[in-house]
Amino acid sequence: MPARLLTGKEVAASIDEKTLTRIAELKDRGVTPTIAFLRVGDKEDDIAYQNSAVRRCVRMGIEYHLFHIEKNASQEELMAAIEKINTDDRIHGVLMLRPLPAGFDEKAACAAISPQKDIDGITNGSLAGTFTGEEIGYPPCTAQAVLEILRYYDVPIDGKRAVVVGRSLVIGRPVSLMLLGGNATVTICHTHTKELPSVCRQADILVAAAGRMDVIDSACFHSEQVVIDVGIHILKDGSMRGDVDWRKAQDSVAAITPVPGGVGTVTTAVLMSHLAEAAYKASKR
Q1: What CATH topology corresponds to 141-264?
Q2: Cβ atoms of residues 62 and 92 within 8 Å
Q3: Mean pLDDT along residues 138-165
Q4: 273 Cβ neighbours under 8 A, 6+ residues apart
Q5: Residue 99: cis peptide before it, omega within 30 degrees of 0
Q6: What pLDDT, in 10s, does the model give residues 88-107?
Q7: CA quadruple 106, 110, 113, 117: dihedral positive or negative?
Q8: Contact between 204 and 160 (Cβ < 8 Å)
Q9: What is the mean pLDDT of the chain?
Q10: CB burial class (10 A; 0-12, 13-18, 19+) of residue 167?
Q11: Contact, 116 vs 86, CB < 8 A?
Q12: Distance CA 230, CA 152 (A)
């Protein structure tokens, strides 16, 4: 039997409905939620994500500003752009597309972002809130998108075994902690994990966030498994693939998110919900 598709469109629509209500309330008070997109270089996956987010801004009546730093620019130029965003009271939130190109100090850039405008959960304060379970800042949008998909489709988390393939601060580590917060038993793996397929086969919920196309193949699956594919890889023909070998997964697991049309769709919806909340908090200060 083909795997059930856990498409992101319906999940995003559910999130958007609540966000649009908050945006309408803000506009009634003369506040238009405004986001800054900060992109360094011209990576195709960064551009694809930014374009998707911009289209959502247009649909939802959100204003946006684009900040583009060349790949060969200096760290000082990047920090100056962050300072400009921090001090502009019209901007309520910032999305800095990561990872940054080689040669940039990403930790310093993340630390420089105003905590009040950190809607993607990349500052130390936001990450601390994610790791401790306290309501500090916002969790990383992609990590939250994974949880939103599981909840929307009523995938049980409590007591289940979750395997996360990936250990980055962007997705792997935070989504592991968020699954743990839902009472899953979580194993974090990566591309150096020995016997990776056998570990993956033990998962009730398998989150693929390794950043390598098709690294999760038929040796990793079982028939009752729910697979969340976080990977995004742009091919030469413009098509998109994930970390999961879709051709082998679709008849081997119980449910799976597609690429495109899965986690990425929900991630931008989560981002806009965080932006609306940041604008609301700023209006109260």
Answers
A1: Rossmann fold (3.40.50)
A2: no
A3: 96
A4: 15, 18, 19, 22
A5: yes
A6: 999 999 999 988 999 999 99
A7: positive
A8: yes
A9: 93
A10: middle
A11: no
A12: 17
Same fold, 30-116 and 141-264: yes
Cα dihedral: 11, 16, 18, 21 (round 10): -160
Q: What's the CA gap between 52 and 194, in Å, rounded?
A: 36
- Which residue in 146, 153, 154 sits closest to 186, CA to CA? 146
- What are the backbone dihedrals phi and psi of residue 15, each rounded to the nearest 5 degrees, phi first? -70, -45
CATH of 30-116, one of 3.40.50.10860, 3.40.50.2300, 3.40.50.620, 3.40.50.1220: 3.40.50.10860
Dump pLDDT digits (tens) for 47-66.
988 998 899 899 999 999 99
Determine whether 72 is exposed, middle or buried from the number of CB atoms within 10 Å of its CB (0-12, 13-18, 19+).
exposed
Query: What are the extents of the domains in the chain?
Result: 30-116, 141-264
Side-chain half-sphere exposure of 92, counting CA atoms within 13 A: 24
DSSP-assigned states of every residue in the chain: -PPEE--HHHHHHHHHHHHHHHHHHHHHTT---EEEEEEES--HHHHHHHHHHHHHHHHHT-EEEEEEE-TT--HHHHHHHHHHHHH-TT--EEEE-SSPPTTS-HHHHHHHS-GGGBTTS-SHHHHHHHHHT---S---HHHHHHHHHHHHTT---TT-EEEEE---TTTHHHHHHHHHHTT-EEEEE-TT-TTHHHHHTT-SEEEE-SSSTT-B-GGG--TT-EEEE---EE-TTS-EE-SB-HHHHTTTSSEE--SSSSHHHHHHHHHHHHHHHHHHHHHH-
